[in-house]
Specification:
Elements: H1 23-34, H2 39-53, H3 58-85, E1 92-95, E2 98-101, H4 113-137, H5 141-167
Antiparallel strand pairs: 1-2
Helix pairs in contact: 1-3, 2-3, 2-4, 3-5, 4-5
């Protein structure tokens, strides 16, 4: 297995800014920080995976820890965007006009290495699909530039998880 020296893209980050406040876009960013398919879910899952794998596969455990750090950075960017766009960046999303707080119930907690990796891979693929949909529908070039940059990192995570699956 390669040492995975890159857990994120080397592409330069666009500035964290918006064209103008927009409540609909703010809700999309809240979804990225506090829904079941969110950066908060990824961070929590990967930290859990890190603990589960520590005794059996230290290399995989460390990979999950490092990817969790990248996901924390994504969370922070989405939270800043949500605030700039006009929302309170709590760990929640908006459903039918009401806030729904993030919960650990959002996650599945497999403990077998293969299932754990497949679950993580699916989460990354789902995040990419979500961010691509948002990038197509949001008409704020600053927000879409950040979504596109985050997608690059998520695609690296997909490749890492695929390579890890090949190793077991």
């Amino acid at each position: 297995m390669s040492p995975f020296t890159a857990f994120c893209s080397s592409e330069k980050w666009p500035p964290i800014k918006i064209e103008c406040p927009n409540p609909a876009y703010a809700n999309e960013m809240l979804s990225n920080i506090g829904s079941c398919n969110s950066e908060l879910s990824a961070v929590n899952l990967y930290l859990y995976n890190n603990i589960i794998l520590t005794d059996t596969n230290r290399q995989f455990a460390e990979i999950f820890r490092k990817i969790a750090i990248v996901e924390m950075h994504h969370w922070q960017i989405f939270a800043q965007l949500a605030r700039m766009l006009g929302a309170d960046p709590r760990p929640w999303s908006i459903s039918c006009g009401s806030p729904v707080y993030w919960s650990p119930d959002c996650l599945t907690y497999p403990q077998q290495t293969k299932c754990l990796l497949e679950n993580s891979l699916k989460g990354e693929q789902d995040a990419i699909a979500k961010y691509e949909r948002q990038a197509c529908s949001i008409r704020d070039s600053c927000v879409t530039a950040l979504l596109s940059r985050i997608i690059l990192d998520e695609k690296i995570h997909v490749e890492i998880f695929r390579e890890m699956l090949e190793q077991i």
